[in-house]
Each structure stands twice: as structure tokens, then as C-alpha cells.
Amino acid sequence: MLLSNVTSTHPAIFLLMGIPGLEHLHIWISIPFCSAYTLAVLGNCTLLFIIQVDAALHEPLYLFLAMLATIDLVLSSSTLPKMLAIFWFKDREINFYACLVQMFFLHSFSIMESAVLLAMAFDRYVAICKPLHYTTVLTRPLITKIGMAAMTRAVTLMTPLPFLLRRFHYCRGPMIAHCYCEHMAVVRLACGDTRFNNIYGIAVAMLIVVLDLLFVILSYIFILRAVLQLASQEARYKAFGTCVSHIGAILAFYTPVVISSVMHRVARRAAPHVHIILANFYMLFPPMVNPIIYGVKTKQIRERVLRLFLRKDV
Hints:
By secondary structure, this protein is mainly α. The protein is built from 13 helices and three strands; from the N terminus they run βαααβααααβαααααα. The protein has helices at about 25-55, 60-75, 80-90, 95-130, 135, 140-160, 160-165, 185, 195-230, 235-240, 245-265, 270-295, 300-314; strands spanning about 15, 95, 175. About 35% of the residues are buried. Putative odorant or sperm cell receptor. This is Olfactory receptor.
């Protein structure tokens, strides 16, 4: 098997190793991974179908939820099928350019998800703090512009990465110690000065996490202040209850990021498979739980899901 192209400075293919150190458990590990992916696909497709067919759900909150579901589908589908092929069939090969494409989709759609969660925080802020202006502020054209801005930001930030990686000479072999083409896992195989890639990757991650999370927290500070000013306890509970699903989605997205970041710094001597499992958890958890969170906690979604399945039973 030819692993590299002698006329090029980069390998023709990379070899994804899956979870190094746990190769003998790949079949067993694939069971929860496959289950999570199945739930993610079914849950997000159901959300998109319900929002599409029900005109009453063509409101700002549900349009943002449709964006989130679409992103989660792309995010999970860009990594899980190849990951399961590694676990089931030991199909570790991935073309160099396919690897760069996977990396681009993985990181750009993660950035988009962060932006959409921020937009949903803005939606909750307007709904609770300025309810009389909700329909005039969050118009369809503004929602479209927010979606386009989220996509433009992600594409702009991630487009340089494939070009930066393409210029390197890869002298440390073609084996990527990961389940998918993560940026830093690929950079570790490159020779030469990779400091710019390291700095750029960290800067983008910190910018997105810190900036978006800061604005989300600010939105909820204003929301909490507005809720506490309501006259009755019932009104406070009802108002804050509309935010529970969004808070759950934020925790599902950012908690694995924070845990993984802390582990990389606190437990540097931990086995590599620990960090890889955490990274996979970050990829799988939000797409799997977001439909469950919104399906259980959002009355309109819950009622329409029940109506859909009850109609099938009749």
C-alpha cells in the first residue's frame, strides 16, 4: 500500500488511528457512538420536519432552532460515519484533501453553532425584556442576516486553515492519533515552523468561546433582572421557564469544551485516549441532546411530536 506521494510534500492519504490504546475495544465503543448518532439524526430531522410543515412554528425562536438542528446534523455527519467505519471495518485511510475538508466542516460548523446559540440568547432577551417589540425587532430579514453573518464568520475564520496545512511537509508519518481530522492532530505531523498554526488555532478558539459566551452571559444578566422585576412569582417562573431549553443547549455545547480545555492543562500526563474520548463526547453530545432538550421542555414542539406519532398509530 502506497502511503505517500513522492512528487508532493504531503501524504496522499492519512491514517486515522481511532482511539489509540483502546483498539481492542473499538467494537464495544462503537455501540454508544452509533446510538448517539442515530438519536442525533432522528431527533434533528424530526425537529426540522415539524418546523417545516407547521406554519405556526415559523417564528424567530423555531427558525433559530431549525438552524441549530441543521448545524448539528452536518457536524455529526462530518465525523461519525468515518469514525464508525474505523471501529467496524478498520477503514482508517482518508485522502489528504478529504481530511482537510472534514477539518473545515468540523471547525466551521462548531463556530456556527456557537453563533446560533448567541442569536438564541438575543431572541430570549428581546422576548422577555422587550416583549412589545419582539415581532418588529426579530423580523424574517434580520433572522436571515444573522444566519448569513454566522456562516460568514465561520467560513472566514476557517478558510485559512486548509491552505496553511497544505504548505507543510509532513515528515512524521501519515498516522493521525485521532478519530477524525482535528486541526492540531494534523499539525503535530508537520515539520517546520508550526507556531502560526498553533497561535491561530488557540486565538480563534478563545475568541469564539470567550466572546460568544460573554454576550450570552450578558443577555442572561438583563433577562434575570427583567424577570425579577415581574410582580408575581408565577409570572417570573413562566418567563424564566422559556429560557430553560436554551440554557440546557448552552450547557450541552460549552461544558464539554471547558472540560476538555481544563483536562489538556491539568491532566497533561493522562493517557491520550482520555483526551480523544472527551473530544468525541464534545462532537456527539450536543447534536444528540439538543432535540431532546427542546422536545421535552418546549410545549409547542412536544405537542406536535406527540400529534405526529399518535397520528401514525391511528
